[in-house]
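Blinded run. Sample ID left blank on purpose so nobody reads anything into the name before looking at the predicted structure. Input follows.
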Amino acid sequence: MVIDHTGETVIVTGAGRGIGREIAYHFADAGADVVAAARTESEIEETVAGIEERGSTGLAVPTDLREPAEIVALVDAATDHFGTLDVLVNNAAVHVAGDPLSRSVEDIDAMLGVNLRGVFLLSQAFANAVIDGDGSGGSIVNISSIVGHLSVPAMPVYCGTKAGVYGLTRGWPANWHITESTSTQ
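Blinded prediction complete.
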């Protein structure tokens, strides 16, 4: 299957390594300009170098998805640099391993902040930028995990956040009519 994303701008979170980096490369290979977001600047700079080796334009934007201001800054940097946005891939995730009976509030907040709240807030900021942009529409791809449907030892918070991503993914389309009706009032 040949997929062409020429002329599109894609934001990929967790793009510094692993699956996120490969997703960024896939879009670059398909002709898209890619905004690589992650907390570690050196890793996303490496990803951008790989994007540019593929003939696309990349932009590295260090982003901590636990910080709402950094989410807004990511979307602003992407629109300032490329103009309109076309695709958001919510790939970043945090899992803190350990005994659930001694899980700290900081560990719980880290997983909830990136895996669930960050996905929602970035989707919200992206959707608003697309609506305010050229109006041609956009796509949000949320990467979850099979553990969102399973019980896995020592991972109840992570599993819960991934189940929440499924809920957000199903919930967004069900609410477009609300967004459309309230934006015209």
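Unblinding after everyone has recorded impressions. The chain has six helices and five strands.
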